Amino acid sequence: MSSRIEQIIEEIEEYIDSCKPQTLSKANIIVNKEEIEELLRELRMKTPEEIRRYQKILANKDAILADAQAKAEALIKEANIHTSELINEHEIMQQAYIHANEVVEAAAQQAQQIVDNATIDANNIRMGAMQYTDDMLGNLENIIQSAISNYAAKYESLIASLQNCYDIVSANRSELAPTISGEGAEGQEA
Predict the structure, then answer these.
(1) CA distance 117 to 136
(2) Contact partners, residue 15, CB within 8 Å, separation at least 6
(3) Cα separation, 173 vs 87, whole angstroms
(4) Apex 153 CA angle, 148 and 159, nearest 5
(5) Other C-beta atoms lying within 10 Å of the C-beta of residue 12
(6) Helix, strand, or coil (residue 19)
(7) Distance CA 179, CA 168 (A)
(8) How far is CA 42 from CA 139, 167, 178, in A?
(9) pTM of the predicted protein model
């Protein structure tokens, strides 16, 4: 199940793939600014929503830890009660003490294992969320960089074209200038 952010990125990629190539260029495309801006706006709106979703997952870490702590305390309390009952019985006092210590040790180990597992799970979820967010931002960064490069190349191409036209017009005027001044001098002599 992919997230809405991944779907939007796929839509942006599909949109870019469907754009017409720029005349006389295989690398540049013509992009409808409104459409790409709408997709980027939607991506910006969905990113905080995805982050909130991952924060809820991280928030569950505390609930898992609290549950593990409660279970551990219940086990320890139960072991302590059991120990007290056994101690009260004089005939089996030694056996009760040994058994109680084993129960307490087992409960402490089980509680520690639950806490360790919950911490590892929470850290894995947090790292996964951070990695996912970084991947999404990296993809967005690449898309924006590509758009900047495309527009920069188009701008440079336009300036070069305009400069070429300017040079041709200037050269044509220079060629006409001696002829125009020469005709003016002949007309004054007649």
Answers:
(1) 28
(2) 35, 36, 39
(3) 116
(4) 125
(5) 20
(6) coil
(7) 17
(8) 15, 45, 62
(9) 0.33
* Residue 187 amino acid letter: G
Tokens of 138: 């990296």
Whether residue 63 is predicted with pLDDT greater than 80 in this model: the reply is no
Domain ranges of the chain: 4-183
Each residue's pLDDT tens digit, 69-100: 888 899 898 888 887 777 667 666 677 778 89
How many Å apart are CA 111 and CA 52, to the nearest integer?
30
CA distances from 40 to 33, 36, 61, 137, 168 (A): 10, 6, 32, 12, 42
Range list of H helices, 20-92: 33-88
Task: Compute φ and ψ for 29, nearest 5 degrees.
Answer: -130, 165
Q: What is the pLDDT of residues 19-31, one digit of tens each?
A: 888 788 778 888 8
